Amino acid sequence: MLYHLYELQHATISPLRMAADASKKWLRNPANPMSYTHQGRAAAAACDVFTHITHRYGKPEFGLDTTVINGETVPITEEIVHSEAFCNLLHFKRETDHLKTQPDDPRLLIVAPLSGHFSTLLRGTVEALLPDHDVYITDWIDARLVPVHLGHFDLDSYIDYLMRFLRKLGPNTHMMAVCQPSVPVVAAASLMAAGNETCQPASMTLMGGPIDTRENPTEVNKFAKQHSLDWFEQHVISHVPLPHAGVMRRVYPGFMQLAGFMSMNWDRHVSAHHDMFNHLVEGDGESADAKRHFYQEYLAVMDMTAEFYLQTLKVVFHEHSLPEGTMRWQGVPVDPSAITKTALLTVEGERDDITGMGQTRAAHKLTTNLPDNMRMHHLQQGVGHYGVFNGRRWREQISPRIKEFIRRHDHEGKGARSAPNVTHINAAE
């Protein structure tokens, strides 16, 4: 019923949005005398902000057309190399045929979070890594677009997908988990290590991930812990309505997730849109566009299946199954101590208010049989959750450390190519 009310609200407000859009264009038309007045600019700005915040945004594009390798511009082609019902394995193919020397860079699988936003949220992450890696990413599919007859998708399915992708890519593939995927990435690596598989990852980088949410719990962790699974099922789970392809699938809707995201920093979002209004009135289109582009990405959300959401809540936030040693995958024990060949790098942000300090670093306590020279921890000063994988400090301080770590632990000697000069990397205790 909740989802149906949302769709009804969206349909009801559509005529108002169309009227506001038409009014905005007329108020900015040079033939309209009002366009030269403060009142006219203010009215146009108000219509602009209204259409912006009431628009439903679809999946954004990565838009990464080129990268630079050894000073030369290289075209990028996106290609889907493997498909599952709920995820595509996307490859950013670097067209390097014109280069005199072909790059022999490590292969990297970036596991994007399945927590409301599309994988394009990691655009900046991918962009920084493309010059030095052969990059693949998990491109999760909006659950409301997946027909019910294609089956269910839960945390066990997620882990299964990761192992399939690693086998598809072959030996000596490195993995990077951004936030939510950290637990399933460790689980997949543990299961493959226990089976002594040749395709177990060469390294895994965990960034701001909830390995053990009992460490320095945040408000997000406390909220998840304080409410029962029945409460979440009753209050946030709904059925996909018509006309979506996934009609009748039980999901945690994207609009509910977005409401949760925004409520955490409501004042900041209100202030941002007030600033956008002022920029438009003042004619500062560049500043207004910067905020508009950010929110076009931020407001683009996807549904996730109810079974995945509820199982993740249970395993990660309620029972702490991975750090407690009780986690199972399809009945098989998940034992991180089995990991002996996959190097481990953990990255945390000093100001992370979603995944508290120590929660990601906890992975080192679980990989008890991993040699000390194959593990490392980095705490980035002055960044919050998103700053761990996007922004200036990500580009200038965090990504060079990750690149150096991956090259150092590449099993095929690809680290012979000059790696970034990195200092002040603190090994995990």
Query: What is the CATH top level name of the largest domain?
Result: Alpha Beta
Apparent shape: globular
CATH superfamily of the largest domain: Alpha/Beta hydrolase fold, catalytic domain
In CATH, the topology of the largest domain is named Rossmann fold
Largest sheet: 9 strands, mixed
Secondary-structure element order, N to C: HHEEEEHEHEHEHHEEHHHEHHEEEHEH
- Distance N terminus to C terminus? 50 Å
Total helix count?
Answer: 14
Helix vs. strand class: alpha/beta
Give a count of the beta strands, DSSP E runs of length 2 or more: 14
Radius of gyration: 23 Å
Assigned CATH architecture of the largest domain: 3-Layer(aba) Sandwich
Sheet-strand content, in percent, reads: 15-25%
The domain count comes to: 2
Task: Give the strand order of the largest sheet, numbering strands 1, 2, ... along the chain.
Answer: 1-2-3-5-4-6-7-13-14
List segments where confidence is low: pLDDT < 50 over at least 5 consecutive residues. 414-429
Give a nutshell description of this structure.
The protein is an alpha/beta fold and 429 residues long.
Question: Which characteristics define this entry?
Answer:
429 residues, alpha/beta, Rossmann fold, 2 domains, three-stranded antiparallel sheet, 14 helices, 41% helix, 17% strand, globular
